[in-house]
Amino acid sequence: MKWIIRKSMAWQLTIALILLTSTYTVTILLYDLHTRYQAGSHYTSLVAVIARSQAHTSILRNTLEDFRNRPEDTNVVNRLENLLWRIPQHINGVSFHLQTSQISENDYYAPLKQLKDIREGLSEMHQQLDEIKLGGSPYNFLNQGQIIENDLAMAYTILEGIAHSEAGKQQIFMERLGRTVAALSVTVIILITVLLIGFFKLRQKHHKVLHLSMFDALTQLGNRRYLLHHAEAFCRNSQRCDSPLSLIIIDIDHFKYVNDAFGHPAGDQVLERISEVLKREARAIDVVARLGGEEFCILMPDTSLDGAMQLAERLRQKICGLTHQQLNVATSITVSLGVTVACKNDMEFKKIYSRADKALYKAKTNGRNRVESA
């Protein structure tokens, strides 16, 4: 009887210890995160804003050089107009982050004033560009652009140094705080690590096995098993709610040529780029899967045949428009797509898939790089 009581008390103490240590650890971590946010958020965002804005220096230099060589090129002129509008917007953003930071105004007054002068100069350049369009000389415009580009680089370099200096001080403070918090937390965490490590390992293995069984390792899309798992539920829901259920099967045209001509690693990159297009264009509720090889599909609940055809055509155009740089192969890629929608009285996925496959075959036999329905 005493043994039973001692065992019961031991379990109670263990549970109490776990609860206390967990609460303590969470409290310390929340305090740490809160302190980090309050102390370092402004500097982190400021450094990021300056880094993004600093990129305009080289962009402006390259665009001005393009304009010097091709002043009649409308694409170059449009890029210049966009820069003359975009750079002042980023200057405003840098100004806002500086003024809301804890940096002394005396430290950034000079480079910020220089940026504001640059903003005025960019406005004048915009007017000069309008005059050039009417036949004016680009000489003064290019000279002023070169001066502004140099001033912009100098101002951002100074501001970057200031921001990094403040961020460095903050980092030292946070490192000291982190070591203090870590020393307190480690003692507590060790007490519960042994109890939790087995559970976490088992859980990780379970999730890993589940992921490997349901997802394609290359594209991170669902695989055929993943598709079938969702297809059954979608078919039941579509039949119950009397809502349309559409399916698109996508097949890469002449994919064997890509593997033979450029190698399988290049072919894998093509598959990854295409899977990115599919994920980007599909809705969150759609199921995007790689069926194997060069074949993909999208299962779309609450989607009519017309809606599915529109998505299929958009996918065809997006994939066809991928550049050699995006694909990392010196060839263009096209796809053929078969589309179908489930019938009200025929919600068996095998039959839906069969009709979409027939539509895909029709697209292949009719010349590829097209969308067909069945």
Please specify the SSE layout and strand pairing.
Blueprint: H1 2-69, H2 74-99, H3 105-133, H4 139-214, H5 224-241, E1 245-252, H6 255-262, H7 264-281, E2 287-292, E3 295-301, H8 305-320, H9 324-327, E4 335-341, H10 349-365, E5 371-373
Parallel strand pairs: 4-5
Antiparallel strand pairs: 1-3, 1-4, 2-3
Helix pairs in contact: 1-2, 1-4, 2-3, 3-4, 6-7, 7-8
What can you see in these coordinates?
It is a single chain. This protein has 374 residues and is of the alpha+beta class. It folds into 2 domains: 189 residues; 150 residues, Alpha-Beta Plaits, CATH 3.30.70. Helix content is 75%, strand content 8%. The chain contains 10 helices and 5 strands. Strands 2-3-1-4-5 form a 5-stranded mixed sheet, sandwiched between helices. Helix 7 packs across helix 8. It is flat. The N terminus is likely disordered.
